[in-house]
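[audit] Reproducing an earlier prediction to check determinism. Same input, same settings, fresh worker. If the tokens differ from the archived copy the diff job will pick it up downstream; this log only records the rerun itself.
[audit] input (604 residues):
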Amino acid sequence: MDLERRLADHVVVSDGAMGSELLARLPDAPRLDTAALEHPDQVLAIHLDYLAAGAEILQTATFGTSRPRLQRLYADSETESLNAAAVKLAREAREVAGVDCLVAGSIGPLTGLLDPDSPEDRALMVSALAEQAGILAGRGADLLVLESFFRLDELELAVEAVRGVTKLPVIALLTFPSERPPHPWAEHAALVARAAELDVQAAGVGCAPGPLGALEILERIPEVRRPLAAQPNAGMVVYRPGSRLLSPATPQYLAQFARRAAALGAALVGGCCGTGPEHIRAIADAVAGLKPQRRRGAAVSVIEAPEPPKRREPSSSLATKLSEGRFVRVVQIDPPKGANSDRIIEAVRQMADHPDVDAVDINSNPLARLRMDSLWLAAEIERRTGVETMPHVTPRDAGIMGIEAQLLGAWRHGIRNLLAISGDPSQLGDYPGQYDVNQVDIFELVRAISRLAEGSDWTGNPIGDPPAFNVGVAVNPNDDIEREAERLQRKVDAGARFAMFQVFFEWGPWERLLERLGGRLPVPALAPIWPLNSHKLALRLHYEVPGIVVPASLLDDLERAGPEAAEVGRRHALKMLAEAPQRAQGVYIIAPFKSPERILDLLG
């Protein structure tokens, strides 16, 4: 019996979670997205347990096996083999159990890895989703499940991508990250109703916000043409490596949920995170013999829509000067290696008395080496010296929620300027960057910071008092000019207000990028000024630091100067500084690492 006939005949029971079951059954945290190849016996056992519990839809272990997700595990070359193996395991479970069930190819969202607001990333999404759907369909899946999409526009994109490669039935599930009351249940219900208008066989809610939240949403969905589905998680699931994962929701609790969901019109019930075979058994027993209820239209009351929050514009001394076209001078410093910031504070206090210092730019763990947090140091500098700061933020060291939380605190302490950078990759082990977080890329980081000014976090949840940072980004004119020009424009489109150029020691790279952009930069830009103090430093920068080029003529001059190399570096920096106002809207001057106050000698 195919999916549509099952949904019309009786309340269909889907299986529960695959990921949390793997976490609970394996002693060490596995790579969940590669489980079909690395832990096939466990995947097969989970499928068999769900069939024994009464499930008639088995979802494959492929939620995270699209090519972009696998790239993060250096396993994108296994995209086809992983998806094919997962379908084979589900089909094998059906044959072993002798149960009349359907195999559903699971496909997860890509928002967070790719930006659905970027035309380039949207094209990559369509390609990746279509590729995965084509493999799943070609290897014998009976239907596809688009799981846990938290943006309707990406879900629409996914349906379009799937329909380009297969006519298999599709179940579309939206998820709504839980928030404190008041919950926008009616808004969530309206989104599910819109999902039900897509070219799918069923639509509903999965994963968050849990059983009660799913019921609240079901209750408010107006009459729709498609069958409704409800596959919530089992409450807030906590996992601690080395200990068994336990769900807060009991089987009895989910049985009550299933009966209520069926009464509200759900034709398909199951579970997500934390839902195991015992929960599915209780759900199957609870809805046994039930027919899908005719969906009654929810009572509709007209409520005047609240005005969308007004975007707050950046307000800082630096932002004002840049918007007015005034030439600015920023001093770049490194945070201390230890917990004592007094030496840095004293150096900046001396800069505070200089009329040509507009702000202090603070690196974030430069060269991926541990130093004091740039946001904390920025707040301390502003509190103790009054000098405006520009701390760096990077997705290398924290997840997006952690970054947003830090930024809320930074705003509260007076930070108004930021430089968003990718950050140097960590050098631990054989693979640079292997232990970095990078939950989002630089484009999504800039967009997330920009969204804060609109009153919402990265996932779209409203926040309170919105912070509006003056966000800058980095651009490297020493790299591939075409690539850097395109990346700079994408950063500007995401919300960047100004740019800072990677270190260079002659104006050629600046001019080449400017020419590529038609003679005009899209945002105000700051040029680098670095008074090199030795030939040895110049050699290290040129040959050992990616993205920095020291001209051969300057290398030769520094080498010939011998013990007077610092004076040569100083004169070269003064020349660049004198020429900067004819080209850039400002400069950032890299201070000596051990004595940052000595940069004042360059400013006079």
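[audit] rerun output stored. Observation attached for the diff report: Confidence is low (pLDDT under 50) at residues 299-306.
[audit] end
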